[in-house]
Amino acid sequence: MNKPKETRKQVKIGQERLAAVLGHKQHQFIGKPMPLIDGLEKTTGRGQYSADLRFPDALVGRILRSPHAHARIVSIDVSAAEAMPGVRAVITGEESDVPFGVLPLARYEYALARDKVRYKGESVAAVAAVDAWTAEKALDAIVVEYDPLPAYFDPFEAMAEGAETLHEKRERNIEREVDTEFGDVEAGFAASDVVLEDSFHAPEVTHAQMEPHAAVARWDSFYERLDIWCSTQVPYYVHMAVASVMKLDMSQIRLVKPMVGGGFGCKTEAMSYELVCGLLARKAKATVNVVLSREEVFLAHRGRPATWTKLKMGVTRDGRIQAVSAEVVQRGGAYGSYGIVTILYAGALLNAIYHIPNVRYHGLRVLTNTPANGAMRGHGTVDMRFAFECMMDMVAKKLGMDPVNIRRVNLLETPSMTINDLMVNSYGYPECIDKVVAASKFGEKRGKLPFGKGIGIAGSHYVSGAAKPVNRSNMPQATVTLKLDTDASITVFTGAAEIGQGSSTMVMQVAAEVIGLPPSRFRVVASDSAITPKDNGSYSSRVTLYVGNAAIQAAQRMRDLLYQAAARGLNVFPNDLELVGETFRVIADPEKTLAFNEAVELALEYEGTLITKGIYSPPKIAQGGANYRGAGVGASPAFSYSAQAVEVEVDVNTGHVAVKKVTVAHDCGFALNPLAVEGQVEGSVWMGMAQGRQEETQYENGLPLAPNLLDYRFPTIMESPDIETIIVESNESGGPFGAKEAGEGSLSSFLPAMANAIEDAIGVRVLDLPLSPENVHAAIEQARKAKAQAAAQAAGKTTAQAAGKTTAQATPEPIPTPKATR
Amino acid sequence: MTYAMHPFTLHHPRSVEEALSMAADHPGALYLAGGTDLMVNLRKRLHEPHHVVSLAGIDELRGVALEGGQLTIGALTTIGELANHPLVLEHLPVLAGAAALVAGPTLRGMGTLGGNLCLDTRCRYYNQSHFWRQANDFCLKKDGDVCHVAPGGSFCWATYSGDTAPALLAYDAELDLAGPEGENSGERTVALNDFYGPDGRWSIGEEPGGRRPGELLLRVRMPLPESDPESGWEGCYEKLRVRDSIDFPQLGLATRLLRRDGKLEAIRMALTAVNPRPMVVAGLEEFSGRVLDLALVDDLKRKANKTGKPMRTAVADTAYRRTMIGALVEKAIERLVPELAEPLAERRRLD
Fold it and tell me: Chain B residues with CB-CB distance to A under 8 A?
């Protein structure tokens, strides 16, 4: 109402401005939901995946697979195939004698089998032809003579005395034996009031990712160079493997990762088909497509191994864990893959969620004549977490304790180093439990629902990146570069493999936030070895923390250059400036402005195109102790936490279990993109449900019984429960803006929470996964029998002993603990 | 990428007559209706035809009609249409219910009633790729001479797994078939129950089976008095599967019953996905007049269990499927005789 009388203008510093000056600016482009930057391409079908790439005159590559589970190759005659019209190249194991394998310790697989085949479906020969039918008929024409050997589909048979070994130097087919003890486990059990032990079984499961493996390779005979496009999570590792197997220099190869339709771990290493694709292209001097069928995806596999777990837990009367002892046997399949890491993870991640003063772990990774197992979402932890969180409920029941309380009394004090040298910094697990208990009304439901309905709870955690890369190297583990050019746009170059999890959106958001420019100024170029910096790839949930931190550093450097240029233009210091929208403005004198475009012109003057770089590697303290073998596995700069309440309805008539509601809280440190975090958490819950409720790869004479998406029954939307996702933000000080893992940690708590809910619903404890109609029904029948027996006994004798606990099935055969030499 | 199919010539007849003459010209040709099963099987090299006759352009084989006291359904009527058609919903609710549970919405939009009735039998050793079957020494239904389900036997246990056949068996359906020129020429009518052979080797275009080589299924007919909603008959279709969509039945049970004053007047049951052919549960006539109680339910379960013979043909556990025959009988009775639902649930309690 009063007109200002002053000619001098009053500068008002509002909260927001003040915050900007002091560096506490409100987040602009992070911390709020943002659709993924490639979402439109994917949902409209415009996106190009490896199998969509069309090259004129491209040949079709097909792979001949072994019909034997274990056999010596006596001879291979390809002459008839080579003579067929339309066939351009036929190759066998002769084509390359360089073995590959993601872990330097386990590099003994060949692109095409040499001397021996070790599982039904192993690649033996390959054909490039003008069309698919010609290629397949040419495969039919290849004559292979085999000399069969004894084959093992069961790890216990494979490691029996006198068993034929699959590989040299793998005595009794043991790929790795892990034997560690921290603290004094026997003393811990002695100090316990209750000690329980039981055996759990989890069958093999597979990733069932949407996009099958696919590659296109183009050989240029004149320059002797190979271009390869492939569906992978780890372009850098594949690049190295292709070079090594083809005996090329890495500089002769350009590797591009197009859009990827899901990986979940099955694309975390070079696969034989990628190598075959390159070898075929060179032999045919042409471009070759190799796209695997769904069945071949099951044979390529690298999924979660069948796992036998024997778990013993000792607690005092108040529920505090005194000691834990675990014995694990994993059926690894015919080759190493990530197996050594898997068996180490299962032991290492017993720790870092609860305080366990004494812990022993014995793990055996056994080689069998089945497709190789490898990394799969929740790598190494899922089956162990199932056993552990079931056991917590079993112990709590014995103590008459609430399942929530037993988890609360065993919480970690943080920050701390665990007994096996894992650094735990941010720890939102207590808050996850509190929020899930409140939101699910756990206390009002547990034990109080009508027969057939139940609720269960469980917790889990996961690494935010494996601290050590698979190949030991002092190179930074993540590198991001930014380019600013005369078009006044910024391109972010990252080797991080966008596989649908949102990594490209994440780096763009982080760069936009640091510089203060809207996303419309940015483009992201990812995973092209000729253009983008090297990155170790998308596995172990490493990208947000590692690549996010690298992006921050690159963006800060770019921001400095831009602010310096703008400051020159406005004749002030960079600190006096703020970037509002796309205008630089002097904070103390808002009339003095410089458009972003003009600032760019000034920045490029004399210098030309601006390029900045950021790098990241985890701090040494987070890389695991060096004082025991295998210490590098499990170590991570940060851990995510999750708690989950699952509500079920059990049909005791059929054993069907309907999952009605899931309430999940996930501590991701800080949600850079809450929309993406929710998507990842829901995806984890869903994948946990898939394994928990129904999935299973059974083998029939070494062949997967259901190598298709009709019979391998991963859930449909019809089985999908209502999922309530709660984001917990514990602010990880080592993470970008406080962020850490979001994509895997909530998987493994689903399975035990579901088993605990079934127990609540019908009083039956199921120890064997999946919690399928068959297994649940069998457990119900067992319980019925036990009940009838107890009743008969009570009627017959006066001193009937309690029927004991109701377990699903007879305890699996005891796990032998051989003292292997390796 | 999926595996390649054997190259074939695709024919596009516009009438039944034309289709039959094409089949006569090319013995061994396959009829293609919705293709939801056939295309998958072609890629597994379960059939390697040189000629395929697409039925897509034969409009006379589509639609549901009520005429002359009979309900007729053209063989090319899609499963989705069946599930929602007012005449089917009114007169054949068990069929509508079964159709609604076939596969998923997209497949129901393609798959046809004729295709579902002529569905090739399924087996864990048969519905596999050429590579898989070769690595498992093939089997007597295709390319081999042993049965992995019952080694040593010469009988094929591959299972009929359509959902519509048991429902239609409960309605006493009949089929009209037309044969191509030659020994099977002309039209004939068979009871649905006589259409299927006992051995799982019966297959589209192959003997032994109810359908003769080159024959084309034209339509399905139901006598109306039986399916009159006024008649007092009630029915339902129960399907056992892991997922509530997409899956073939692990077991399916169609039930129709007539009751009055707490007593059973008549009951019909038919099973699918347990035997090489859909089966009418035998011996149910003796229950007419019985009081509807738990003892009767147990007797019905016994009869159903006698008829259904699950073998190791499915991925699901065989013993479980055997037990589930009785479980589905309980489910059906719970639905159709609500007053028995509570006593049945009470009997199943564990606590």
Answer: 1-7, 104, 124, 127-129, 131-132, 134-136, 240, 242-248, 315-317, 320, 323-324, 327, 330-331, 348-351
Q: Is the pLDDT of residue A803 over 50?
A: no
Q: Do A707 and B128 touch (CB under 8 A)?
A: yes
**pLDDT tens, B227-251?**
677 789 999 999 999 999 999 999 9
- Closest to A465 in 3D by CA, of A343, A640, A711: A640
Q: Where are the beta strands (DSSP E) in B102-195?
A: 174-179, 186-191
Q: Among A10-24, A748-762, B74-88, B305-319, whose mean pLDDT is lowest?
A: A10-24
CATH T-level fold of A15-47+477-616: Aldehyde Oxidoreductase; domain 4 (3.30.365)
What's chain B's average pLDDT? 93
Contacts of A764 in chain B (CB under 8 A): 350
Give how far A135 is from chain B: nearest CA, Å: 9
Give the domain ranges of chain B: 9-57, 59-118+159-226, 236-348
Mean pLDDT on A195-224:
97
CATH of B9-57, one of 3.30.43.10, 3.10.290.10, 3.30.230.70, 3.30.1240.10: 3.30.43.10
Closest CA of chain A from B317, distance in Å: 7
Closest CA to B348 of B286, B287, B297: B297
- The domain covering B236-348 belongs, at the CATH homologous superfamily level, to CO dehydrogenase flavoprotein, C-terminal domain (3.30.390.50)
Specify the DSSP element, H or E, that contains B53. strand B51-54
State residue A15's pLDDT score: 58
- A16-25, A49-58, A645-654, B197-206: range with highest mean pLDDT: A645-654
Report CB contact under 8 Å: A700, B2: no
Has residue A805 got a pLDDT over 60?
Answer: no
Check A703 against B132: CB less than 8 A apart.
yes
Highest mean pLDDT among A6-10, A144-148, B172-176, B194-198: A144-148
Contact, A53 vs A229, CB < 8 A? yes
Give B59-118+159-226's CATH code, choosing from 3.90.180.10, 1.20.1250.20, 3.30.43.10, 3.30.465.10. 3.30.465.10
Measured CA to CA in angstroms, residue B134 lies from A67, A69, B321 at distances of: 7, 13, 28
Task: Report how far residue A821's alpha carbon sits from residue A349's, in angstroms, rounded to the nearest whole number.
Answer: 25
Domain with CATH 3.30.365.10 in chain A: 15-47+477-616, 175-206+302-468+624-773
Domain A50-149+212-260+267-300 part of CATH 3.40.50.2000: no
Q: Do B243 and A784 touch (CB under 8 A)?
A: no
pLDDT greater than 90 at residue A442: yes
Look at residue A10 in the predicted model and tell me its pLDDT. Answer: 57
What phi and psi values does residue B141 have, to the nearest 5 degrees?
A: -75, -25
Q: Where residue B68 falls among pLDDT bands split at 50, 70, 90?
A: confident
In this structure, the number of other CB atoms found within 10 A of the CB of residue B315 comes to 18
Complex ipTM = 0.95
Query: For the structural domain made of A175-206+302-468+624-773, what CATH number should be given?
Result: 3.30.365.10
CB atoms within 10 A of CB A734: 21
For chain A, residues classed under CATH 3.90.1170.50 are 50-149+212-260+267-300
Residues of chain A above pLDDT 90, percent: 90
| Confidence tier at B184 by pLDDT (50, 70, 90) | confident
Q: Tell if the CB–CB gap between B245 and A292 is shorter than 8 Å.
A: no
The pLDDT value given to residue A807:
40
Element (H, E) at B240: strand B234-240
- Please report residues of A whose CB lies closer than 8 A to that of B3: 132, 136, 293
Across residues A730-735, what is the average pLDDT?
96
Query: What dihedral angle (degrees, nearest 10) is formed by the CA atoms of A348, A353, A358, A359?
Result: -30
CB pairs under 8 A between A and B: 104
